[in-house]
Structures are given as C-alpha cells and as structure tokens.
Specification:
It is a single chain. With 248 residues, this protein is an alpha+beta fold. Helix content is 29%, strand content 25%. It has helices at residues 7-30, 37-50, 117-135, 143-156, and strands at 54-55, 67-71, 74-76, 90-95, 97-99, 102-103, 106-111, 160-161, 167-169, 176-180, 197-200, 203-205, 211-213, 220-222, 228-230, 233-238, 241-244. Strand 5 and strand 6 (102-103) form a beta hairpin. It binds magnesium ion. Magnesium ion binds at residues 105, 168, 199, 201, 232.
C-alpha cells in the first residue's frame, strides 16, 4: 500500500534528508586515495549520530554498516571493509538517517581523484538521468513516466540499466511501496498524487545490464566487471512540483 504524507510528515522527512546530505558532504570533503571503505562508513556513522539521528541502514535486513560503499564494478550493497580507494576509482556511498521515526535515503557516486573521460561521462549522465526523472514526478503523471525517463535517457547513451533493483517509497519505513524501477513504459503505472514520497535511484552500468551478487550475500557487481554509477534522491510530490528532500 502506498502511504500519502502530510506537509508536517514531509517536513520531518526533510530534516532526515538534510542529515543524510550532510553525511555525503562530509564524505566528499574527506575522500582521498588510500582511504578504506570502512573509513567512509565511520564518517557516515559519526555525522548521522552527531545529529542525534539513527543510521537506518545499520541492521536493515541484517546489513552490518551505516553506509553501503560500492567501488567501481560494485553496483550496490558494498560492505565497508579493508578495500582501499585508488586514484581513478569511483565510489558510491548510499546511506540514510532516521529522525523521530522518519527516514531518508540518498546516494552519490564520487570520483577518487581523476577518473577517465569515459567514467566521468557515466557519472554525469547517470546523475542527469536522476534529475530528468525527478522532473517527471509531477502530480497526475504516472510512475511509468518516471521510470521511462531514466531508461530512455540512459539507453540513448548506450549504457546498461540495472533492472534487478529499483527505487522505492519511503517514510516511516526505509522501503515502502511503490517500487520505482529504472525502466518502464510512459503513461503506465500508478498515478502520482500530492504527498507521495519516494526514492529515485538510477543504477547505470558502463556496459551491459547484467549484475550478480557476490558470495558475501550482499554486494552486487556488474557481470562485465566494469564500472557502475548510482545516484539517488528522496523526493516528495507536491503542488509546487517535485521537492528534493536530500538536496546537498
Ligand atoms: Mg534507496
């Protein structure tokens, strides 16, 4: 069931969203070659708890950290650990905060130093597909319009689209209905109404759609073994248009 939020609910979610955005800002500020993915998780945990919020990924379905930290060919659900970041890597940091029972969820793929032109373009295009999809999240539009926007934008540019994982509603729970896929048909699906809150999160591969899960049961990697980018915002559908609740 899809829950519709009141203005005051959305204000609380915005509070949770701001803390998540600050955690990403802190990561970006500290990001250096030589850091481990665990170092990134520590920053995220510190920033979220310093605000009196709860890192809502920690323990979610048994996940062992406050952030999913996914490097290069890792698409999502990277477990922070001893992997060191090298110059030219990309790293997706996916996290969320819970404040007074309201959740946020956001992700950004950072460059570690200088990356190749091809990878730079993958990041730019994936992020832009997110903003195009957000713009489609208007009252009266269909969920399929949002999904199709990501798909059309990324296919046109020759990328692979991860289809086994998708965006989602959010609120009291981190994952609520509806599912928000990164592929779909325009004009199809649920009609968007004022007060819906959901996460749009394109996961886009440099080559091929295929992904698989590593033996640790969590980390999803590309079948091609090459780069994947992931950008996510939590938004609210409002009378004034889509409102980004995790803006940095
Ligand atoms: Mg999400």
């Amino acid at each position: 069931m899809v829950s519709v939020k009141s203005k005051s609910d959305i204000e609380k979610m915005l509070e949770a969203g701001k803390i998540a955005a600050e955690a990403l800002n802190a990561v970006e500020e500290k990001l250096r070659p030589g850091m481990t993915t665990k170092d990134i998780d520590k920053i995220v945990h510190r920033v979220i708890t310093a605000h009196g919020a709860v890192p809502n990924f920690l323990g979610l379905y048994g996940f062992p950290a406050s952030a999913c930290v996914s490097v290069n060919e890792e698409v999502i659900h990277g477990i922070p650990g001893s992997r060191r970041l090298n110059e030219g890597d990309i790293v997706s940091v996916d996290l969320g905060a819970c404040v007074k029972g309201w959740n946020s969820d956001t992700c950004y793929t950072f460059k570690v130093g200088q990356v190749s032109a091809e990878v730079e373009k993958l990041l730019r295009d994936t992020e832009q597909s997110l903003y195009e999809a957000i713009a489609a999240a208007q009252i009266g539009a269909r969920l399929g319009d949002v999904s199709h926007t990501v798909e059309a934008y990324c296919r046109e540019r020759g990328y692979g689209i991860v289809q086994n994982y998708c965006g989602h509603g959010i609120g009291r729970e981190v994952h609520e209905d509806p599912e928000v896929p990164n592929h779909g048909k325009a004009g199809h699906g649920m009609r968007l109404v004022e007060g819906m809150t959901f996460c749009i999160e394109p996961m886009i591969n440099l080559r091929g759609d295929g992904v698989h899960t590593l033996k640790n049961g969590w980390t999803v990697v590309t079948d091609s073994g090459t780069y994947s980018a992931h950008f996510e915002h939590m938004i609210a559908v409002t009378a004034d248009g889509p409102l980004i609740l995790t803006k940095r």
